[in-house]
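Page header: ASSEMBLY MODEL / two components / 908 residues total.
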Amino acid sequence: MDLRIQKTYEALFALEDIREIFRESLPTGPDADGEKEIKRIAEELKKTISDIESGTGQPKVRAIGNSLPIRDREEAYINIQPIQAAGRLTADARKAIISYGDGYSACDQCRKPFRLDKIEKPCIAGFHRELAEFLGMDEARVVPGARRGFQAVTSTLIEKGDIAIATSLSHYTEFLAVENSHGQIREIPADKNNIITADSAAEKIEEVIRKEGKTPKLLMIDHFDYTYANEHDVYGIAKVAKQYDIPLLYNGAYSVGVMPVDGRKIGADFVVGSGHKSMASAAPSGVLAATSEWAEEVFRTTQITGDVTNRRFGIKEVEMLGCTLMGAPLFTMMASFPHVVERTKHWDDEITKISFLLDRMLAIKGTTVLSEYPRKHALTKVDTTDSFDTVSKTHKKRGFYFSSEMSKRGIAGVFPGATKQWKLSTYGLSWEKVRYLADSFDEIAEKYNLEVAK
Amino acid sequence: MDLRIQKTYEALFALEDIREIFRESLPTGPDADGEKEIKRIAEELKKTISDIESGTGQPKVRAIGNSLPIRDREEAYINIQPIQAAGRLTADARKAIISYGDGYSACDQCRKPFRLDKIEKPCIAGFHRELAEFLGMDEARVVPGARRGFQAVTSTLIEKGDIAIATSLSHYTEFLAVENSHGQIREIPADKNNIITADSAAEKIEEVIRKEGKTPKLLMIDHFDYTYANEHDVYGIAKVAKQYDIPLLYNGAYSVGVMPVDGRKIGADFVVGSGHKSMASAAPSGVLAATSEWAEEVFRTTQITGDVTNRRFGIKEVEMLGCTLMGAPLFTMMASFPHVVERTKHWDDEITKISFLLDRMLAIKGTTVLSEYPRKHALTKVDTTDSFDTVSKTHKKRGFYFSSEMSKRGIAGVFPGATKQWKLSTYGLSWEKVRYLADSFDEIAEKYNLEVAK
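Prediction written out in full:
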């Protein structure tokens, strides 16, 4: 590991050791031994900070505890891993996680009616209101990942044997949510350009009604799919869903938090987003938002009663299982939120960056883009079968040469061994990094005598 | 906030600002502006560290981002909040959260068959094996909170109208999990000492079979309940469940991670634990473990197929919705785990500490213990209606005087206004802190002329 990054971690860890002394001390402060230990750590820490500045010294900490390696992917590399880009924490989120990591940290000031989204200090209630507004929806709840949002909706709407509509490009977690509710799923086929159209949605609904004699209970549409990150016609499909009176779940795992999303304008009944995928938040985190009409159902409060005690459980929500997302994932969502709101306004810049990179990659003869082109998303699937993969036939590392060459240049996130069809994302990278990436692909191409158009 | 604690946070945050510069830099390192900024932060940081040592300086950082206050409950106070005690992060867990906070940090080395509990680097797979072994069960999965463990089990076992048995002291999340599966719940009544006995369990099962004509599909028993933290006869009840061939879910939210729990010895089919409640982990986190027999059902893999694509989803598990608990909550569980294993061996010491404190509190005339006594758990419900509450009748702050007096002495976690029946926990506190607590109760009693036996 780069020594300065190593030393930054060592300094952070030393401060946690000091913090631990405060934690172990009486409210009156550390005792003599504690003070001595603070002094010792502090003196060493000052040296460590000098080492950060100068890049000197020897690594001291090899692992967290006995065996957990220190992770430096975001510090030492340009990370183009397709699903990691927009989940990377902001500095504010990292500060929040330091302060609020303890288990029930959200609950210090929990007062009646005892529900997470009602807590006013810190302003978790206000965050919920802002979140709903940000998504153009009436109500929002934080959930442990987008999949738990799907599950809440399928569990509410789908009974045994019911049909839910998804698409041939839908994420597997939508399938699992439907399976979990004992429902069946039918896929709207993508067209030859791998786009889901409103016509295709209407045809599929008609086919299901005609052949199976049931109207689907739910339609789930990924605004951008996980394979190509192609944009699908969510506006048109929402209209179709409305015509058939089928509630629409907008899956914004790849849109909520990176681009503007207005659920009301789209015509969505539910909007689901992913915190760790697209909202610069710790996992597992996400959001489920609904119109007021559907909020009544998906956020219905508990009705069950204890037969002996006659206990009821107030305003706890059945699908949320009470409180949902306390602690680190929640506070990272909250701390990143102002930055997330701001960044969605600059989505065009992200498109410009991926387009620039792809133009440069396409100049490497044989490279093609499998995603729709021009791009509407920073995540893109490329095909380098006729460029970078040709090298792997004779290279002693085979396909691994490519990720290895990338890694040597400080680029992480290409699946090791992948040289044919693979995905990358430039989301959130600076122009400097995007140019560095483009130059790196060129360098590797030239090193292995691939033809590069100038 | 105590200035030295304030300065510790400021130093941690400054290091995150340095880390952000590395994150924004090319793999070749920071540019001239970046270097200048590192130097500036580092110089200031050295002063901040001197301030930590000496307690000098002025507070600089008032909030994280615009509005999130810095949390100092664990650093500045003795925290006796009943549910926070055993979820407090270890120093290793805090280091893990710093390193692994980013959304998909668990997934850097995810390889076929692409499932969280199969990842070998970092050794998430090994952790799952150790976790199962630690609980005396065959298989274990991490889940986003104990409630998600209950949900997986009820969703697997309970169909519409089915009956699950819980107790009159069961946690509300068990009720919500059953409600979520469209089941009904019946409570085993506690006896006059607020204990759930095997006889009472057998009677309830008999009653349900006799009156409702159905054998219950599940029996859920909290080893220690959330109200009194009384110990219930899990061994006897497991035997009863076996006689009626009803699967037993052992709810170890208050035991797994603080005391030895051997699911096999107990005779449990499922063991559920809470990471943020009792395993020194970030929320939401927990564990669901099962015998190999039941693991096949609750961890069944997906069977659903796409009708257009014929897609299947490999070994993803339906109830887990694929991967479950990535990032911060998982890595805090892993980093705390060796400490958690070790601390369960010293459960007796924790009982000795709460017993010492209660003896001292009982010397304040009028104070009683509502939990079973002698104690078998560090969490305890006390009744101070005839001691501390008598003061509130004439105090201008009314009941709030008590939490205010506690807070003045650096003690947090007493519900503001509560002076009659309230809960506390001494879990994980040093003897020094326990004595300080006892002395503080005495001081307050004496200040308000309550009678204290010497």
